[in-house]
Peroxisomal trans-2-enoyl-CoA reductase (marine sediment metagenome), 283 residues
Amino acid sequence: MISQTHPRYAPDLMAGQVALVTGSGSGMGRATALEMAGCGARLALFARRSEPLEETAEMIRARGGDAFVVPGDTRDEDTIEAAMLKIKDHYGQLDVLVNNAGGQYIAAARDITNKGFEAVIRNNLIGSWQMTRAAADHFMFERGGSVVFVTAISARTALTGFTHTVAARAGVTGMMKTLAAEWGEYGIRLNCVAPGTIKTDALGRYPITSEQWQMLNRSVLNRMGTAEDISGMIIYLASRLGGFITGEDVYVDGGETLHLGHDARDMINPELFEQRKRGDGKE
Ligand SMILES: CCCCC/C=C/C(=O)SCCNC(=O)CCNC(=O)[C@H](O)C(C)(C)COP(=O)(O)OP(=O)(O)OC[C@H]1O[C@@H](n2cnc3c(N)ncnc32)[C@H](O)[C@@H]1OP(=O)(O)O
Ligand SMILES: NC(=O)C1=CN([C@@H]2O[C@H](COP(=O)(O)OP(=O)(O)OC[C@H]3O[C@@H](n4cnc5c(N)ncnc54)[C@H](OP(=O)(O)O)[C@@H]3O)[C@@H](O)[C@H]2O)C=CC1
């Protein structure tokens, strides 16, 4: 059995299950794969670059778990089909799919070209659909399963600078709910996890500093999220713990989307009100 340093879930929570995690060479995908392996799941690791996936696989194996690398691109049906066949051959089953792979670039809406908009829709919405459709066709229509989509807080709020991905992620949420309604009869549960601002290496790929990310982050808990904040919820939903949950959209955002704008406490405190007017308030 795999060793876990600080287990949150029982080491046999996912025993006997096979999970495919997309984007598992880094960030939240890697954290999810590692923790699922710690819960007894056998892992299929999917992303475009093999090297980071092999690193994740090595980390899992070093702790006594079972992991298998299936390189591919969620936008490319041929690589998805090849991955499903390899999983069938290697494990003979697939019980859990985590659609975590994705990404976009920051741009003001007026600077987003049609081609750029479409590229982000392909990477985040169409890719997730293709993976889900293939997993259902190959495995889940027969024996049920669980699908978790990693989206963003954008199904609940506007996110300026991210119009294309807001459209894509809100699309994923709508798709997830409709599939949940249609596929319940096959024993397939589908849910979304919507992360707030999560401190992963990916944030470093944007042209803004970590200090600027801190400023953009509006969590009421006064910190950024961690990859493990997200993996815990993914596992809850994917495993039998979430066995009666389907069609849900769970926000793991430290309260980032609670903000309504004005803080009435400032209005009844002249000092805070003056601070707010000067722009040096707590926000
Ligand atoms: C929801 C937001 C929450 C806030 C925090 C979010 C954090 C994260 O999401 S972490 C992820 C960090 N981001 C990344 O890792 C980068 C992800 N981006 C990509 O992988 C790619 O840029 C792509 C998939 C979105 C597009 O790639 P591809 O399909 O290969 O398309 P092209 O490179 O051919 O570009 C097509 C077209 O798209 C426009 N474009 C692409 N990149 C940029 C850019 N960096 N800036 C501006 N525009 C871009 C552009 O119009 C391209 O067409 P051409 O101009 O003809 O090249
Ligand atoms: N960090 C944050 O604050 C937030 C992140 N998110 C989203 O959560 C998810 C995980 O984010 P995070 O861990 O931070 O980011 P990472 O960039 O570390 O992880 C994304 C992974 O997805 C893989 N990937 C990207 N596009 C494709 C593709 N077309 N096919 C297969 N694999 C792909 C990448 O690997 P490779 O390049 O090898 O393919 C990469 O390892 C992403 O969808 C992200 O957009 C949402 C809200 C906030």
